[in-house]
Amino acid sequence: MAKRIGKCTINFDDFKPKIRGYASVCGNFEKEGPLGETFDITFDDSFLGEDSWEEAESKLQTLSSETALKKAGLNSTEIDFVFAGDLLNQCISSTFGVKKFEIPFLGQYGACSTMAQNLILSAIMVNSKLARNCLAVTSSHFCSAERQFRMPLEYGGQRPTCAQWTVTGSGALIVGQNERKILDENCYTSYISSALVGKIVDFGVVDVNNMGAAMAPAAANTIKTFLEDTCTTPKDYDLILTGDLGTVGSRLLKELLAKEGIDVLDKHNDCGLLIYDRIKQDVHSGGSGCGCSASVLCSLILQKMEKGTLKNIIFVATGALMSTTSSQQGKSIPGIAHLVNIKLMNI
Amino acid sequence: MAKRIGKCTINFDDFKPKIRGYASVCGNFEKEGPLGETFDITFDDSFLGEDSWEEAESKLQTLSSETALKKAGLNSTEIDFVFAGDLLNQCISSTFGVKKFEIPFLGQYGACSTMAQNLILSAIMVNSKLARNCLAVTSSHFCSAERQFRMPLEYGGQRPTCAQWTVTGSGALIVGQNERKILDENCYTSYISSALVGKIVDFGVVDVNNMGAAMAPAAANTIKTFLEDTCTTPKDYDLILTGDLGTVGSRLLKELLAKEGIDVLDKHNDCGLLIYDRIKQDVHSGGSGCGCSASVLCSLILQKMEKGTLKNIIFVATGALMSTTSSQQGKSIPGIAHLVNIKLMNI
Predict the structure, then answer these.
(1) Which of chain B's residues have a Cβ under 8 Å away from the Cβ of A336?
(2) Is the ipTM here above 0.95?
(3) Among A76, B194, B252, B314, which residue has the fewest nearby CB atoms (within 10 Å)?
(4) Does A52 reach chain B within 8 Å, measured CB to CB?
């Protein structure tokens, strides 16, 4: 049985929910970035051949899920629950993206933190043997997000330098009881060792073009609590990977942790900083969106774990819990950060 | 440990996650309905003293949660997870409604089925001993929902007779490991005996003014699967309570089940039919919204269980997984229904 450690951490080391398959599907702009070669599928057309950007975003989820299933050697009848989420109103990318699989569905909303939330709930289901396998999937799409949250693209609005660029992408993971079918003897299987569900942290940030600043306090709180709960320090991990704090948020995170006496050393990186080339690509503070942390985790990061280059990582996806209505009404942007500790088996 | 029964059902009878507290908070229109006397708190002012309807909806969640905690004799530090959801874009009622409690937060989206989803995940957390107690809360508000999903209220649009009226209300439940502190020796404690997570069912309904028809197929599918999994029939239950199918959806549900050879007899009722007086109140097909099934469950129904009038019920909350964008783009309205079987202890 999973057990609680410290104040908030859940430990799964007894049964080790395995990552059996994963896949990432991204757009053209992501393909042109430094991780372009690591994605399973990329599209040059922002519509992915569909009639709308919303339908295109659903297709990202369908394709990432299908590819993850295929790589895991599983079919959808072997998946007992799907945890899916996205940024669109009423999470329609998820509904339309996964409905064809006919898997019992639990829609999740944690803004850009949703992939970590999905992984935590998947691990709990698998560890308690209520599921053989769970599918965890999220997506975002630059064009559907811009028109919903900001301005119509045709308006050509200027973005401040602290703004982030919503990733067109989806990541899907299969968490299961059994080990991944090893295709290559040099490949390692990873598993979810522990996790922490974050609290809502509100530092009163109101600038919708500065999500990194709104989310950094939540990330700091989650990382600090996890390190305390597990009696570990940053040097115990190969990588502390935040979701999408971008340049501004990442700097703030380090400052906030330093105040708590925590030096993340050179262990910290951020999915929003990894996915684009910020010199060649005009993304300002970096990438963001439900698909940002999901597609980076389900490409470069898990590929490195598979090869044994990374053995023990902390994945801290961060979310800004606002809507256009709450912002227009002058409300602050509360942040949240959920943490998943992923380790290699038998290392 | 919880275990799986049949194809999809989860059984919690080994450890019996208890309902330790519950509360409902509603608006004036609900107060004037047949359940008016059963709600813990009601408000005459649709703003609840706040500046906007969205803030008012958050306040519904805050108050129902506080009241449920109080009735359970617990404080927020004794709650390990909160599962919350609502209908507003990016679930802001939940974020702003529960952030003050500083409880690890997992935002849920299942449209009007969310209360059942929250209860299922709470029961899993408690049954696996990952939580001492969980808070499950949802809300909806007629005014915030109308302006987001339909028309500004000032427009005075006509509604067809199959349309439903969004409930201004919130229900909150505490699910915990220990029995409720019994205040009266004639009060019974209820617990979550089993549950079923629904699949997305899409019959191609596109009329946003006929949500009942869009959700009925999902409810029929969930009820049928549950009865098969548990080898039970409707006569084994005191009540089969659907979320908010309203008049049209309830009639369709019975037709669909009859085709499967299932006669729900006089056991069926619907939260959307119970909450308003459809003769005196101009609500057309009945109530709806995340707060509908939640406030009916957390008032009349659990009060009847407490008194022993109801001993074994099926609560099937239903959701229509659409957004204004998906409907404007001509997409269908997929439905979902999650089921929770609640029983009395020691009966």
Answers:
(1) 105
(2) yes
(3) A76
(4) yes
- From chain A residues 154-193, the ones with a CB under 8 A of any chain B CB are none
Q: How far apart are CA A8 and CA B57, in angstroms?
A: 29
A334 CB within 8 Å of a chain B CB: yes
Residue A182 lies in a domain: no
Shortest CB distance from B111 goes to which of A4, A90, A129?
Answer: A90
Other CB atoms closer than 10 Å to residue A279's CB: what's the count? 6
Instruction: Identify whether the C-beta of residue A166 lies closer than 8 Å to the C-beta of residue A140.
Output: yes
Residue in chain B closest to A324 (alpha carbons) equals B89
Looking at the complex, does the CB of residue A27 fall below 8 Å from at least one CB of chain B?
no
Total residues found in chain A within this entry: 347
Average pLDDT over residues A37-64: 97
CB-closest option in B8, B121, B323 to A104: B8
- Domain membership flag for residue B7: no
CATH code at A47? 3.40.47.40
Whether residues A241 and A207 fall in one domain = yes
User: Which carries the bigger pLDDT value, residue A346 or residue B133?
Assistant: B133
Q: How far is A277 from chain B (nearest CA, A)?
A: 30
Tens digit of each residue's pLDDT (9 = 90 or more) over B81-103: 999 999 999 999 999 999 999 99
Q: How large is the average pLDDT for residues A43-65?
A: 97
* B326 touching chain A per CB within 8 A: yes
Separation in Å, CA B184 to CA A95, B175, B304, B307: 45, 20, 14, 10
Degrees to nearest 5, angle at CA B107 with B105 and B317: 125
- Residues A327 and A206 both lie in one domain: yes
CB contacts of B110 in chain A (<8 Å) are 106-107
pLDDT digits (tens, 9 = 90+) for A267-297: 999 999 999 998 999 888 999 999 999 999 9
Residues A112, A23, single domain; the answer is yes
Q: What's the pLDDT score for residue A233? A: 97
Interface of A with B in 74-93 (CB under 8 A): 80-81, 85, 87-92
Give how far Cα B318 sits from Cα of A20, A207, B325, Å.
32, 36, 21
Average pLDDT value for chain B: 95
Same domain membership, residue A314 and residue A171: no
* Residue A293 belongs to some domain of the structure: yes
- Judged by CB atoms closer than 8 Å, whether chains meet at A88 and B8 is answered as no
Q: Grade residue B182 by pLDDT with cuts at 50, 70 and 90.
A: low
Paired tokens of B19: 């309902």
Q: How far is A117 from chain B (nearest CA, A)?
A: 7
Instruction: Calculate how close chain B gets to A234, using CA atoms only, in Å.
Output: 23
Are residues A35 and A155 part of one domain?
Answer: yes
Range of A266's domain?
Answer: 190-344
Neighbours of B339 (CB within 10 A): 28
Q: Provide the chain B residues 116-155 that lie in CB contact (below 8 A) with chain A.
A: 117, 121, 124-125, 127-130, 148
Q: In terms of domains, do A202 and A290 share one?
A: yes
Residues A25 and A171 in one domain: yes
Please check whether residue A8 lies inside any domain of the structure: no
Across residues A167-182, what is the average pLDDT? Answer: 90
CB contact under 8 A, A109 and B2: no
Q: Are residues A233 and A148 in the same domain?
A: no
Per-residue burial over B30-56, b if 16 or more Cβ lie within 10 Å, else e, is: bbebebbebbbbbbeebebeeebbbbb
Examine the fold and report which residue of B149, B176, B203 is the final residue of a domain before the chain moves on: B176
Cβ proximity of B215 and B252 under 8 Å: no
Q: Indicate the number of domains in chain A.
A: 2
Global pTM exceeds 0.95 = yes
Strands B287-288, B165-166: pairing kind:
parallel
